[in-house]
Automatic annotation (TrEMBL):
Organism: Actinomadura barringtoniae
Organism domain of life: Bacteria
InterPro entries assigned: CheY-like_superfamily (IPR011006), NreC/VraR/RcsB-like_REC (IPR058245), Sig_transdc_resp-reg_C-effctor (IPR016032), Sig_transdc_resp-reg_receiver (IPR001789), Tscrpt_reg_LuxR_C (IPR000792), WalR-like (IPR039420)
Signal peptide start-end: none
Protein name: Response regulator transcription factor
HTH luxR-type domain mapped to chain residues: 148-213
Length: 224
């Protein structure tokens, strides 16, 4: 079985030590490097090519957001999980736009952290419930978006329906049931949207659904 290679980036050595101990003890996961700054994280990501980088958002010098932007730009296949001490961190939206596939709080159970690494390594997105509420609040505070137009011309009517449901927080199984299609077909539609819209993962599809006016802030479901 291929092991998930993980890079840890946090300026607190004790945090890194705790995460390394938990992740190294988990089946199928290996910590291949540690960084104490964003600049070190970018350098190690180039050298080690990890599957997942677990990135603290606040580090001296280059912060986790800038480091994530550089890592995901240089290597689109790389996955990043952002960590923050407080789920109301004002940089949630910027982190997701930088390419993060997950956003978690440091006080979550280690078992949940291990599960998050596996989920994000598989190409899915995972956001802590409190962070999801923060993301929704970010959109709710903005003016109503313009009617959907630019950027969606290349998708089909069915794909627009799927994008709307993804924006509301539905899983593949839930949107399949809602549209009366098979889960496999739902997954195919989501994959097509990712390709056509140039999105990295479902998180960015949610953002696009909001920005294109397909979903209003009151209709999204806070989910992990």
């Amino acid at each position: 079985m291929t092991r998930i290679r993980v890079l840890l980036a946090d300026d607190q050595e004790l945090v890194r030590a705790g995460l390394r101990m938990a992740l190294d003890a988990a089946s199928g996961i290996e910590v291949v490097g540690e960084a104490g700054t964003g600049a070190q994280a970018v350098r190690l990501a180039r050298e080690l090519r990890p599957d997942v980088a677990v990135m603290d958002i606040r580090m001296p010098g280059m912060d986790g957001i800038e480091a994530t932007q550089m890592i995901t730009t240089e290597r689109p296949a790389a996955r990043v999980i952002m960590l923050t001490t407080y789920d109301e961190d004002a940089n949630v939206y910027a982190s997701l736009r930088a390419g993060a596939g997950g956003f978690l709080v440091k006080d979550m159970p280690l078992d949940d952290m291990i599960a998050a690494v596996r989920v994000v390594a598989a190409g899915d997105a995972l956001i802590a419930p409190g962070v999801t509420r923060r993301l929704i609040a970010e959109f709710a505070a903005r003016p109503e978006p313009a009617p959907p137009a630019a950027g969606l011309d290349g998708i089909t009517g069915r794909e627009r329906e799927v994008l709307t449901l993804v924006g509301r927080g539905l899983s593949n199984a839930e949107l399949a049931a809602d549209l009366h299609i098979s889960p496999g077909t739902a997954k195919t539609h989501v994959a097509s949207l990712l390709a056509k819209l140039g999105a990295r993962d479902r998180v960015q599809l949610v953002i696009l659904a909001y920005e294109r006016g397909l979903v209003s802030s009151g209709r999204s479901r806070a989910s992990s």
